[in-house]
Automatic annotation (TrEMBL):
It comes from the Eukaryota. The chain crosses the membrane at residues 147-167. Gene3D superfamilies: NAD(P)-binding Rossmann-like Domain (3.40.50.720). This is NADPH-dependent 1-acyldihydroxyacetone phosphate reductase. Belongs to the short-chain dehydrogenases/reductases (SDR) family. InterPro entries: NAD(P)-bd_dom_sf, Sc_DH/Rdtase_CS, SDR_fam.
Length: 178
């Protein structure tokens, strides 16, 4: 529960605290753009990433509501949904699984758990600098888009979002061996 709370505190409450801090100034100026960095995994959550995917889905929902609420004040809200992006997230997540010996029910899934943490850091992952440059270019447009998905796995997870649940479940069982 502590880890779950920490993920939500960072990904949802942290974003909301920042939004609350900047909204008054944006309202005074009658302009601004809020950029929330969600995740493509929020569209089709897979195994071993429940807390992370749930927190990003909450941020997507918050962004959708704020986009509608703040438009009349001249404030844009953009949701960025990156796919696999090269960062230190993978190594940070992998260290959490070093305690797997305490998870007797999950021991047989250790390889799949570790693979989940490495999948977004693989050779096809998007360099963070590339993602940042693309987001900045969009934000600086006169009318920034409300949604921007980019990077490794963004196409497949978008397709899985629109797929029947039985197919999504089959896909994850096949790919993630769970």
């Amino acid at each position: 529960m502590d880890a779950f709370h920490q993920v939500f505190d960072t990904n949802v409450y942290g974003a909301m605290r920042l939004i609350q801090a900047v909204i008054p100034q944006m309202m005074e100026r009658k302009q601004g753009t809020i950029v929330n960095v969600g995740s493509i995994t929020a569209l089709a959550p897979g195994p071993w990433a429940g807390a992370y995917s749930a927190s990003k889905a909450a941020l997507h929902a918050l962004s959708d509501s704020l986009r509608l609420e703040l438009k009349s004040f001249g404030i844009n809200v953009m949701t960025v949904a990156p796919g696999g992006t090269k960062s230190n997230l993978g190594s940070t997540s992998a260290s959490k699984y070093d305690q797997i010996h305490d998870w007797k029910y999950y021991k047989k899934y250790e390889e799949s758990l570790r693979a989940r943490t490495d999948v977004s850091q693989g050779p096809g992952s998007t360099p963070a600098e590339d993602l940042a440059k693309r987001v900045v270019a969009l934000v600086l447009k006169k009318n920034p888009p409300a949604w921007f998905a980019y990077g490794q796995f963004s196409a497949i997870l978008n397709l899985l979002y629109y797929s029947p649940l039985w197919f999504r479940d089959y896909f994850y069982r096949l790919v993630m061996k769970c």
